[in-house]
Amino acid sequence: MSTLIKNGRVITAVDDYLGDILIEGETVSLIGKKLEVRADKVIDASNKLVIPGGIDPHTHMELPFGGTSSSDDFKTGTIAAAHGGTTTIIDFAVQYKGESLIQAIDHWHQKAEGKPAIDYGFHLIMTDLPDERLEEMKRLIQEDGVVSFKLFMAYPGVFLVDDGTIFRAMSKAGEHGGLICMHAENGVVIDVLVKQALAEGKRAPKYHALTRPTKAEAEGTGRAIAIAEMAGVPVYIVHLSCHDALQKVRQARDLGLPAYAETCPQYLFLDYTYYEQPGFEGAKYVMTPPLRDRSNQDDLWKGLRMDDLQVISTDHCPFCFKEQKELGKDDFSKIPNGGPGVEHRMSLIYDGGVAAGRIDLNRFVELTSTAAAKIFGLFPKKGTIAVGSDADIVIFDPNREETISAKSHHMNVDYSAYEGWKVKGVAETVFSRGKIVVERGQYIGRAGDGRFLKRHPM
Ligand code: URP
Ligand code: ZN
Ligand code: ZN
């Protein structure tokens, strides 16, 4: 099967030109101006942007967490992602205590089996690392294509690992070309603050935010970078939410250290006031780190422009308001942490970033696709439009407007964090390895066609 996309404005992280793209089978085979070639299907992309499929390197499909499981599975979550122009996710598998690293990855392969609508990879959350398990990292990195790992400085008793474990894991990852992603928050101090708040009868959703100060995130970020420096390895800070933490990344990068970080749309567009809505409404926004004071947002955008932040992911971890968020009706610490986002990242960042004049088109592509492909071992197969690259391509209409709503979204969750928001810029046609999976807003792909991506070490 071949497809010719004609007359589009092709944007990559570095290019911007009017041209035609020929897709043959799963890859891009020819790029040029006014191509006179035969193709099974011809699509006119006049007045549209033609961009690499989005890569969201931070999702949690069907994650058991907070006494329940995130409500999207690998089918619903990846179909929703495709609707929004994301053609690759990297999801977080979890090693539970007592499990080997290989068992944990096998478990996540079983979970995903037959479901993903787009290509996918796994990072591994590690919680239990005696020396013999640490050795398994080598096989995961070199043979199994799992080249990145997440460690937590938060959630004592669940995910938290101590600094010695972090140092050992970072050293081992570095030895074999792996990368540690860090949930950087001082979870021990936060735990004390949570217990104090509850003892004082402070139970509403807003106390989730008030017990997780920006200084706790900054301390974790600084410590993660310092431990990485001692181990002589790079580190990637996930879901960075505030100026205080960004300063730590900035200082490290100014010194030439290989510190990388992502932020997410919720930290760029939403803020603490969402917790102060009447009743239990604020529970919809209980996520970690929490939404911050709006004054942080300009600095996050500056960080994105100046490359102190390299990636925009979603941390998609949806829980329904009914029955799931309600688990914490009388106690904010029991509200499952996380929110939906995988579907609207590209539109939100185009609208609030490019259309609002905060970033240019090349940076938009870099932040939503190319940088993640490079950092996580997928480039140039993914993250760009080039001869030989996978034909993961989005024909994006920069002028179409859409209203975000739980009534029309495709994520399996009963609310939207952006209910009623109008966004300009929408994915119109989405190719996953040469096959159209979304055509003029309709999903026409097949769940299960998504392929596991063995990523290459750094
Ligand atoms: O609230 C969040 N972020 N839930 C998902 C788990 C994590 O820490 O990424
Ligand atoms: Zn996290
Ligand atoms: Zn997460």
Entry summary:
The chain is of the alpha/beta class. It is built from 13 helices and 19 strands.
Task: Give a verbal description of the structure.
The strands form 3 sheets. Strands 1, 2, 3, 4, 5, 16, 17, 18 and 19 form a 9-stranded mixed beta sheet that branches. This protein is of the alpha/beta class and 458 residues long. Helix 5 crosses helix 8 and helix 8 runs parallel beside helix 9. Helix 5 links the parallel strand 11 and strand 12. The radius of gyration is 21 Å and the shape is globular. The relative contact order is 0.18. Helix content is 29%, strand content 24%. The model has no long low-confidence stretch (mean pLDDT 98). Bound molecules: N-(aminocarbonyl)-beta-alanine and zinc ion (2 copies). One zinc ion binds next to loops.
